[in-house]
Amino acid sequence: MYLYIKREDMKKLFVIFTLILSSAFFVINAQKEDQGIVNQLVIVANHGGPVISKDIYGHFSEHLGACIYGGIWVGTNSSIPNTYGIRNDVLFALREIKIPNLRWPGGCFADTYHWKDGIGPQEKRASIINTHWGGVTEDNSFGTHEFMKLTDLLGCDAYINGNVGSGTVQEMAEWIEYLTSDSESPMTKLRKENGSEQPWKVKYFAIGNENWGCGGNMTPEFYGDVMRRFSTYLKDFAGNRLYRVACGASDFDFNWTETLMKESKNRNMFQGISLHYYSVPGGWGNKNSATDFTENDWFETFRLNYQMDAIIKGHEAIMDRYDPRNTKGLVVDEWGNWFQVEPGTNPGFLYQQNTLRDAITAAIHLNVFNQHANRVKVANLAQMVNVLQAVILTKDDKIVLTPTYHVFRMFRVHQDARLLTTDLSCEDYAVGERKIPAISASASVDKEGKIHVSLANLNPNKEIMMTCPVIGVSLKNVTGEVLTANEMNAFNSFEEPEKVKPAVFSGYKLKDGILSVTMPAKSVVVLELK
Ligand code: AHR
Questions:
Q1: What is the pLDDT of residues 106-136, one digit of tens each?
Q2: I need a surface site. Which of 31, 244, 256, 401 has the fewest CB within 10 A?
Q3: Which of 63, 214, 380 to mutate to test the pocket of ligand 1 (most atoms within 8 A of CB)?
Q4: 3-class secondary structure, 232
């Protein structure tokens, strides 16, 4: 038996449901004011929103500094334990955080990369100069086959970034054919000669990177034409369905998005459009040290991190106008904190340490992406190993898991879960005259019905007590994990690799179905509610 509900009745039901929901918020907010409670997160557990794409938890590996060479790839002859040349320690650590997709080979490097240099017998591969990052020579021992092996070992999807800036349409079209076709052709013959009989699956493919800058300094109008030309020849072979990502804007450049969305209206030239936003406290000319900073810098970093919300809203509004049926995704394929390089390291290698500040940055961003699950379909932290806000740092045969790594491990429960409607009211965190919300939050329900709530308390000076009424379910069990440290700038080093690591969280109470949580100062908390 099934229930048939007429369209008009559906509308009425929706109005009634909205009224019930708003009166619930009203009652709770009124209680909150009566009782002088300031911090509250209402979680509506019986009304799921969009699915949080697991790909929001994606990563980025560029040929930059020691990300690929040394960080991921050591080669089969290395004394560092490896699988097909890929470091085992890095591989095992990455599997723990359930990487859903990995972007490669850049970044700015992508628009200088000619993929045919990186195939065939290793000893015959042409060495190249990495003109963008440090001018170093690379022997191309990590190429297409090695990257696809890496994604295979990680159990994640491949996100390949094509070369528009200095490449040709033929080169890009042949790369896709080499990767994904199962028909007989010069490209598939070459792939087989190089040891891969079967084609691979490639989920995401980007048509250039930052083509408004390092990828060719194009105007949006010019790029729009070029992108359409390239896209025309990116074919779907052997059941592979490419999700084509057009190069999108930086930060608040809404004109770029507007131009591309307008020009591509009624044409299915891309399925996603990218967005890059880095938080650079101090500005490009006076970047913060990653480890030696003041509370003012701490505050400013989070103020900049929160801007991600406004930036996404701006681009979303444009996409909603041109694509009201929500067929195209926003792909935030570069985000994170950008600080000064560690003293004594090559400035072109972008090697920075990672503190508790970065952990809270990660929590703020991931909560924002969850909240925008309707439009944000992919996001990639910059970058995975040894570069910018990395999850792993390596030194010879040692590795360190950064505070950012632990946040990705704690938040993995949101992958492919359903976003829950939440209403957060909280105190401000103020420094001088400036204020930002002290708490960042989001919640989801997974396929087994478990609710996960991820929270961050940005205030480094005080713990915060918050009530969390959960509407629609009666809670029986709560568990949680917390990440915090004594100092704002605590970090994991090769000498002390476990200074910042998650611990069991017991700062909650469940009374009469109402959950209250006391978050330590400067902490990230993830709760599981059943
Ligand atoms: O992630 C480092 C660089 O930042 C990337 O190569 C580029 O796309 C961006 O400007």
A1: 999 999 999 999 999 999 999 999 999 999 9
A2: 31
A3: 214
A4: helix
Give the pLDDT mean for 144-153: 98
Atom index in ligand 1 nearest the CA of residue 278 equals: 4
Tell me if 62 CB under 6 Å of ligand 1: yes
Chain centroid to Cα 412, Å, comes to 11
- pTM, 2 dp: 0.93
Residues belonging to the active site: 210, 334
Pairs from 339-346 (Cβ < 8 Å, separation ≥ 24):
339/281, 339/287, 339/288, 339/289, 339/290, 340/287, 340/288, 340/289, 340/290, 342/290, 346/65, 346/134
Residue 106, ligand 1, Cβ within 6 A: yes
Closest Cα partner for 64 from 2, 108, 127, 115?
A: 108
Burial 345-378 (b: 16+ CB within 10 A, else e): eeeebbbbbbbbbbbbbbbbbbbbbbbbbbbbbb
Amino acid at 84: Y
Distance from C-alpha of 251 to C-alpha of 212, rounded to nearest angstrom: 12
The CA angle 258-282-455, to the nearest 5 degrees, is: 75
Q: What are phi and psi of 8, to 5 degrees?
A: -65, -40
* Contact (Cβ atoms closer than 8 angstroms) between residue 357 and residue 33: no
384 contacts 411 by C-beta, under 8 angstroms: no
